[in-house]
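Bug #77: duplicate submission created two jobs. Keeping one. Sequence:
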Amino acid sequence: MIQVSGPAQRDGRRAEFAASDLARLFSALEHCVLVHDARTKEILWANQAACSALGFTLDELLPLKAPDMSARARPYAREVGLAWLQRAADEGNSVIEWCYRTKSGTDILSEARAVRVDLAHGPVVMVQFRDIAEEKATRRDLCRTEGRLQAFLRNLDEGIVVLDDDGHVLFAGESAGKLLDSDPEALMAADFAAFLAPDSAAVLRDVLASATRGGQPADARYRLAVSDEVGGPDRWFAARCQSIDIENDLRGLLLLFHDITATVRTEEERRRDAQYLNHLARYNAMGDMAMAIAHEVSQPISAAHNFVAGVRGRLRGDASPEHLDWGLEHATRQLDRAAVILQSLREYVVRLEECKQEADLNDIVADCAYFVDVRAQQHTVALRWEFTDEDVPVECEKVLIGQVVTNLAFNAIEEMARWPVEQRTVVISTRRHDAYAEVEVRDTGQGLSVPQVGRIFDGAFSTKGNGHGIGLALSHRIITRHGGEIEAGANTPRGAVFRFRLPLRRKEIP
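Kept job's structure:
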């Protein structure tokens, strides 16, 4: 009988087991158990789990030797197995990776642990083994994956850190250390904000405060506190922040960041270039506009001069007050017109703020009719005005938009002046087009080729022998500045169409 002592003794109770009962317990184990004689290494006993795994009955196992139940490979030779069992007999414990062979010839890669047990009739070696083939394959896959990930992480251009709620580093990848010029180990528990400039540190604190579990990633830019060298340019990172919680093992703010210093420097250079170009454009616009409206300014001044000369002539002869008033009034109107044009030029070039007014596009076009009619009469060109009956309210600088109308109309008139008199017609029309007010100027002249249409507003295009090509470029700048569009195309059956659109005032959009 076998007596087992334990907590039951404290209760005054004793549990007694027969040897057969203990055998049944061993047989019920899920781990495979083999018992060898410590001296001869013969198999003395096996539990049911071992018999099932190897495919032998207990009676079939007892006479077997190592070559009968082990893989044929050299690491599992009989002398290797005997030496392993002997170490257990001598030292009390020995572990080996052993490949058993089943009755059907299938190899079972196992972790086998041999333990010396001293029984009443003499010492034995008890072997416990378990199938580790799947586990080892999984371990190999994990090692391979880990090796790949480490290789990727070492060569990433993107740094990886995980921060706690206070911004201290819980984890840092090797690439993060490279980007921050620091050893990854030295980053652990460091305050990440200490690596950033004060303004960027404040941004990081805001991100930490707003990050929520399962929330959307937050993108931001951060500037390093220390440059590459004293007095050197700043270094910048772009970072994506995401709250993570990995199996209760790593919880915090995952920060993926990469160096964008070159990008930021390029953007700064582009901004400086844009500012410089805008500076030049303002002065260039002054020259463009002065050339484009020189004729319009000279016309009212010349007309005023003529009216004044007429008044002077009347004073020598018929000094009727009505005639004198009429002449002086028209001279004043022409001078006022010249003053408005010059004022618009000054505001366009010098003032940065917009100087827009509410107006109806029909009225702006009608205000240009006098000047366009004068030019058409000089070239014997017929004009046809087609005004829409609808209101076309816009918000714009009226003189500038009027300048675009006269520029397009003058171009069409000068083109038609090269054709026979009976063919000289220019049509100027207004209409609503979706959410835009539109002006269109059509002629029946030579028209435009596809290459010409592609470069017509680039500032160097002209079909006139003495043309400088700035009028259309200036018109393009004026219209786009007002949020509109200007385009050119072919007329039917012949000629060209120029049109521009301005947004209707918002309250007028249906």
